[in-house]
Amino acid sequence: MPALSDHVAIVTGASSGIGEATAKHLATEGATVVLAARREGRLNDLKNAIEADGGTALVVPTDVTDRDAVKALAQRTVDEYGRIDVLVNNAGVMPLTYLHNMQTDDWYSTVDINLYGVLHAIEAVLPTMIEQERGHVVNVSSTAGRKVYPGGAVYSATKYGVRALSEGMRQELGPRFGIRVTCIEPGAVATELTDTISDEELKKDSAKMFSKLTPLEAERIAESIVYAVTAPASATVAEILVMPTDQMR
Ligand SMILES: NC(=O)c1ccc[n+]([C@@H]2O[C@H](COP(=O)([O-])OP(=O)(O)OC[C@H]3O[C@@H](n4cnc5c(N)ncnc54)[C@H](OP(=O)(O)O)[C@@H]3O)[C@@H](O)[C@H]2O)c1
Fold this sequence. Notes:
The protein contains 7 helices and 7 strands, in the order βαβαβαβαβαβααβ. It is of the alpha/beta class. The chain has one domain: Rossmann fold (3-Layer(aba) Sandwich), CATH 3.40.50. Helix 4 packs parallel to helix 5. The protein is globular, with a radius of gyration of 17 Å. GO terms for molecular function: oxidoreductase activity, acting on the CH-OH group of donors, NAD or NADP as acceptor.
């Protein structure tokens, strides 16, 4: 019997990168996966791939900055399957930019997606998980949630926030409601994440930095998430930091 055969998991940011890999891995472990992101075509392709491998997936196109849409995502999941066992709070952007370049739209969109988006999903699933007296929230932070670099001030602010939020959630929701909370902190991973960087000065500098390391494949992060989710219910894997071996900081 696959480890997650009776589980229903919502994955935000499932249309690419870490979210896509995680949805596939959870489905391979038997979970029914609910795929959320904005690009519906990519989500449908993923659903087809999962179903071709014998899994079950539901596509619910969702913009995580839209609080009502995220509530509707959770409601649709409960309507279809009657439960929510796992939320992988993964949707995020990283439009790194030097503060002096005043690309302030990037600052605010980063906070809207990486922090408010995460809160929206927690708000949407928590009543169901509390009622079930079980559930697992996996929040995706970053090494940038532990260290700050020039160009990453706002991104780091959101990822430090996600890490703090995760620890607070673990303390409040584990002992009282049996809800587990895991914070995943990847180092560099080869995904589409850097596509949102439009600060030309920063792009040049970061190209130099990234040329010195070998980014991980998204599958390595998906495997970590599966490890946390498949641990016995009595064990909370509170934090996982996964970095490329040749990444210094
Ligand atoms: N790659 C890395 O090196 C790295 C390192 C540490 C942490 N992380 C974190 O890992 C998470 C996933 O990133 P990734 O590396 O897999 O990058 P990615 O390939 O760019 O994936 C980002 C995902 O977030 C979704 N997304 C963005 N804005 C959204 C919105 N408003 N509403 C719903 N979905 C939205 C995107 O889907 P749509 O565009 O279709 O909406 C996409 O599926 C992020 O939280 C990121 O900060 C990544």
